Amino acid sequence: KWQDGEYVVLTPEEIAKAYPRTTQTIEIEAFVDADEVPFVYLERPYYVGPVNKGDKVYALLREALKQTHKVGIAKVVIQTKQHLAVLIPCGPALILNLLRWGGEIRSWEDLKLPPNDAKAAGVKEAELNMAKQLIEGMTAHWSADNFRDSFKEEIMKLVESKASAGETEEVTKVEKAPSSSGADVIDLTELLKRSLKGGSAKSTDAPAPAPANAAGKSTKPSKPPAAAKKSAPAKSSRTRRAA
Predict the structure, then answer these.
(1) Which of 192, 242, 219, 235 is nearest to 51 (CA)?
(2) Coil, strand, or helix at residue 167?
(3) What is the pLDDT of residues 139-183, one digit of tens each?
């Protein structure tokens, strides 16, 4: 729908042309301070790991990001959909976390929130100090093992109890849902080579997550400066769904 009573009709061919090409690349747009990316934009994480002889390149990028406290903002095409993503150093690993587009996030200006200032919000100094003390008293080191899904645990106890009591029934076998696209290959070697040679971050290529059945195969470069398929560099990293 274009306007009231007016529609624009697109043919399947025109729609197909608009799809982004699955180029097997990620395009680094910029590097930004790690704390500039709000958590609300984070969507789906992938682990990125080195393959073949990519250990040094992998470690170089990881340590450079750590020491500069930066993350890489990139665009990546998975199947036929273009995503915004952020490349994050996390312990010994690199994480490629897909991001939501800006238009997908509701603005907090639509919400009735108190002023973004303690005094303007009517918070007294004594109240603020008391809240700080509470936070300090409950401060701990983060560990996922310290938190459990109590609902799942209770359900499993119930299942085990019923099974032990012989309360089981035969049911039609449930078909497994098709697995979502995940573990795939990203080449960080070419990314670093071009960056270290002075190339702009935006024009740097590196193969992006591809369907699982394409893992381990050569990827076709998308831009003229990239090497031809026969001389494409060996893949130096592998991604796997982190969640």
Answers:
(1) 235
(2) coil
(3) 998 888 887 888 888 888 888 888 888 777 777 766 665 554 444
pTM score over 0.85: no
189-209 confidence digits (pLDDT tens): 665 665 555 554 454 344 334
The Cα–Cα gap between 21 and 222 comes to 9
Return the closest-CA partner of residue 83 out of 104, 98, 105, 103.
98
Name the nearest CA neighbour of 85 among 44, 47, 49, 57: 44
Look up residue 7 and give its amino acid: Y
DSSP 126: H
How many angstroms separate the CA atoms of 9 and 133, rounded? 62
Ramachandran assignment for 216, one of left (phi > 0), alpha (psi -120 to 50 degrees), beta (any other) = left
Nearest C-alpha neighbor of 237 from the set 181, 182, 183, 188: 188
Taken in order of first residue, the domains within the chain and their CATH numbers are 21-103+181-241 (2.40.290)
Phi-psi region of 52 (alpha: psi -120 to 50; beta: other; left: phi over 0): left
pLDDT at residue 21, as a whole number: 61
User: Please, which residues have CB within 8 angstroms of residue 182's CB and are 6 or more apart in sequence?
Assistant: 46, 209, 212, 239, 240, 241
What is the pLDDT, as a whole number, of residue 87?
93
DSSP letter, residue 55: H
